[in-house]
């Protein structure tokens, strides 16, 4: 495994990652030239059970025609009763075959291969079973289109596992990762585990009450930090990578502009670090509440609306992209994938062999054959558009309800018209007095306990003590689990009411 | 998380493992006394999708009545054609409900709870979903019966992942693991990764041509090694743990006697190390070919025949047991579990949160609800007995064919009547001349390529250079993947023929 000479950023990879070389005990032995080997040897090699001892003999999977196929049903009782009812109208279903080798011989254009029981319940290739791994490559080509040639993919056990494996491929003990000051904080635990430091990058974000375009920027802070590294972070080595959630930022709900991404990529080139872009939310891509929502996107329009990502702008294999099936399919499949330079994927593959091996074969069967039943990549994108439409409805309902709420109208709070993802930011106006900030946020959290709405405090999603103190005057509202739009509207009211409670003694 | 004071062997756990403390950003905030919180708050907390956006709406799983329900079919063509045929006679099937909360309320005795789609496809608890985790505890109690009270269980992503996680909980860099000189060699890769050393323990094993009881022993070697540690392994710290495959040893197929296990456990107490027992094969428990095979075992007889394990003899939480569903259910579920002292499980849980999270929900649904459909633990044990019966038939066919083969009859080779597991050892008699050993094994491997049978060289399954040189004059024959008994008998003939080829110039 020596593709190292082909990879420009080899010096940014971890020593442990580069040192691995997994040798399997099934290795064959060399035969002399002209040796007459038996043409049909019997293989009694691995502890690989014959499929006829697997208990599962058949599998039939029924699919929803779309999210909430029967509309919303706010009555929890009725909901539970209908949950097991007849399949939704126009729903597809598929049988998983014991042996799909005949089916897979079909050479139709766009034929998406199925995984059968015999293969799916067996030991299998670490990077992923062939049809699903091929799908990740097709998806990458058509939807993500990296800006460099030598990319590859590998399945992971979901987003968090993907991040851990990417970090493992990059960091030695004592190395430095840059991350946004508000971010998916479990990265801190990965850092402790692998032994690298995290340096946070301050962010500017400006929610708007008018639904106009607000922007998240941090490139200037990042530039300043890197230019003055020795004085800003004395004693620390320069960073090897930047962890970023560019689209549907968690927790803030913003997407970075193309221009901003270009600036950050320039900084990565100037200061020589990798970019690890975590994009679980990227496909839940919205329009502002001021626009008429388009629920009839074609797959072409959908892909175009996604725009450019860091990896599509990258020409040298500097970007590693983390994908997850959790948000657009289901978290329980515990499956995602990584796109990166083939050398990076090589390191991650070796680590995967030692640590986790491939994701569940049942997950791979159900995921892959769903894609097949939907008609391949185009059909799967159709499903994602349906999911995006559901989240767009949710986002609009919540943002509009907050915009029209008393607290926002009075200027006591602001709401971010989220551009993408699962989260809307509700900012409490704590005024200019910095000393009052922490006190007011605490009062606000108590008030929400009283009005009855649970969200996540901005401070809990920060890796910076300064940001927690000075810029965490917001909560993250999740669009994901609510049973319907009315619940989101009621939550908006309760959040606003909580802010109003803070001002109950103000002159009105 | 401070149960450390209750655990006698705390000093044998890794510093990294002990230092973890995962804090989730969903944590709640404290409310003042007498605070009047809303009775029904709306939760908009996690990025946890509503189940109505999961594409999967229904799932129906059909089960085989037993392994090879339609008997053997040696014709590969016909096999492929019938693979997708009608379900086997007496086969069960089950529907996975979207919402099983009503079903799970049933309070019947032995009622095994089902996992529904709503739960199984969602994010879930790291140690495992409640019904399956409860099953691992019931199984542990009834079948494994640890000798100490404070044990707990956690699901893993299969046997190899379980081993990695157990090692991670124990070893700091530079620590020492003991392992059998012939073993599951991928542990070497885990050792490199985590940074510990492996010291191999020499083994005595004596296959028999007569089908009588041969024995695997190593306690005396182990005792000698430990008593003379400073001179035998100068500069190395004393070992923190011993990795052992006690039943159906891989590659040798032996099971350790109760007496031998007691000796080893005494050594563990005397020299203060943990025992990590890896038992994926333990339930494929055989009878010698000289006995009439009992294919009608009751579950009680089956459990009794398993006998005592290291963990059942352990009274202080010194033993960690690794279990896998790969060999008795299917490898593709990528699921196993660990039994250990609750403090050890606590450390493994923290690491699991950071690294892999829980096994696939689809795997957990299918595994758990299979157990439910089979009637709970007793029914599941019935399935395992069926699998064991299939392997017993295979073992007997292969061992008898080898015993009656020309090479064994002539004393040029020996066969081990495997006591348990998936593997039979075929030993080539290389004579007394040590210098001839490597040459003959190489010739033998070439001869098998000519007669047409692929197995694994003993040397590939050794971690000791000395053992590879002096005691690796055997191959490991897998019973697992062959389509029928005839294939095993043909393989026996080809193995024997290969030995005969080595002697073709001998006077006969």
Please give the structural blueprint.
The structure is a homodimer of 508-residue chains.
Chain A: H1 15-19, E1 42-43, E2 56-63, H2 76-82, E3 93-96, H3 101-104, H4 117-120, H5 130-144, E4 151-156, H6 159-170, E5 176-180, H7 187-194, E6 197-201, E7 204-205, E8 216-217, H8 219-227, H9 229-232, E9 241-244, H10 258-271, E10 274-278, H11 299-306, H12 310-313, E11 319-324, E12 336-341, H13 342-355, H14 361-373, H15 377-403, H16 406-409, E13 413-415, E14 423-428, H17 434-451, E15 453-454, E16 456-457, H18 465-470, E17 474-478, H19 485-502
Parallel strand pairs in A: 5-6, 5-9, 9-10, 10-11
Antiparallel strand pairs in A: 2-3, 4-12, 7-8, 11-12, 13-14, 14-17, 16-17
- What share of residues of chain A is helical? 25-40%
If strands are numbered along the chain, what order do they take across the biggest sheet of chain A? 4-12-11-10-9-5-6
Estimate what percentage of residues of chain A fall within beta strands.
5-15%
Structural class of chain A: alpha/beta
Query: Distance between the terminal alpha carbons of chain A, to the nearest Å?
Result: 72 Å
CATH topology assignment of the largest domain in chain A: Aspartate Aminotransferase, domain 2
Specify which chain pair forms the largest interface. A-B, 128 and 128 residues
Proper CATH architecture of the largest domain in chain A: 3-Layer(aba) Sandwich
**How many structural domains of chain A?**
2
Number of strand elements of chain A: 17
**Uncertain segments of chain A:** none
Q: What is the name of the CATH class of the largest domain in chain A?
A: Alpha Beta
Give the name of the CATH superfamily of the largest domain in chain A: Type I PLP-dependent aspartate aminotransferase-like (Major domain)
Characterize the overall form of chain A.
globular
């Amino acid at each position: 495994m020596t593709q190292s000479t082909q990879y420009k950023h080899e010096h940014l990879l971890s020593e442990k990652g580069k040192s691995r070389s997994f040798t399997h005990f099934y290795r064959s032995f060399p035969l002399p030239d002209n040796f007459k080997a038996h043409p049909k040897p019997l293989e009694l090699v691995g502890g690989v059970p014959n499929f006829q001892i697997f208990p599962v003999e058949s599998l039939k999977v029924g699919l929803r025609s779309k999210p909430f196929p029967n509309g919303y049903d706010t009555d929890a009782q009725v909901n539970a009763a209908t949950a097991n009812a007849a399949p939704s109208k126009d729903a597809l279903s598929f049988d998983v075959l014991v042996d799909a080798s005949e089916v897979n011989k079909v050479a139709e254009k766009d034929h998406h291969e199925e995984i059968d029981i015999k293969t799916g319940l067996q030991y299998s290739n670490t990077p992923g079973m062939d049809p699903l791994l091929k799908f990740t490559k097709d998806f990458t080509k058509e939807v993500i289109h990296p800006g460099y040639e030598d990319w590859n993919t590998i399945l992971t056990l979901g987003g968090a596992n993907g991040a851990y494996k990417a970090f493992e491929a990059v960091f030695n003990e004592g190395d430095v990762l840059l991350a946004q000051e508000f971010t998916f904080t479990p990265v801190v635990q990965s850092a402790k585990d692998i032994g690298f430091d995290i340096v946070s990058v301050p962010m500017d974000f400006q929610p708007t009450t008018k639904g106009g375009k607000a922007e998240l920027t941090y490139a200037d802070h990042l530039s300043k930090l890197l230019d003055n590294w020795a004085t800003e972070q004395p004693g620390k080595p320069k960073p090897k990578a930047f962890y970023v959630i560019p689209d549907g930022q968690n927790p803030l709900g913003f997407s970075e502009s193309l221009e901003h991404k270009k600036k950050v990529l320039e900084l990565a080139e100037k200061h020589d670090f990798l970019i690890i872009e975590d994009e679980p939310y990227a496909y839940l891509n919205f329009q502002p509440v001021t626009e008429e929502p388009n629920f009839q996107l074609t797959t072409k329009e959908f892909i175009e609306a996604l725009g450019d990502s860091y990896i599509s702008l990258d020409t040298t294999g500097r970007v590693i992209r983390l994908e997850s099936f959790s948000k657009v399919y289901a978290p329980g499949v515990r499956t995602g994938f990584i796109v990166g330079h083939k050398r990076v994927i090589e390191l991650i593959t070796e680590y995967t062999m030692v640590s986790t091996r491939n994701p569940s074969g049942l997950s791979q069967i159900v995921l892959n054959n769903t894609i097949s039943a939907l008609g391949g990549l185009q059909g799967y994108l159709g499903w994602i558009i349906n999911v995006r439409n559901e989240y767009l409805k949710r986002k609009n309902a919540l943002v509009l309800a907050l915009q029209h709420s008393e607290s926002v109208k009075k200027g006591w709070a602001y709401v971010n018209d989220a551009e993408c993802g699962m989260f809307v930011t509700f900012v409490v106006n704590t005024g200019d007095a910095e000393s009052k900030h922490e006190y007011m946020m605490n009062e606000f959290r108590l008030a929400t306990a009283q009005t009855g709405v649970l969200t996540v405090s901005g401070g809990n999603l920060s890796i910076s003590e300064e940001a927690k103190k000075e810029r965490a005057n917001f909560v993250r509202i999740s669009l994901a689990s609510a049973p319907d739009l009315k619940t989101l509207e009621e939550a908006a009211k309760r959040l606003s009411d909580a802010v109003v409670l803070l001002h109950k003694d103000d002159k009105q």
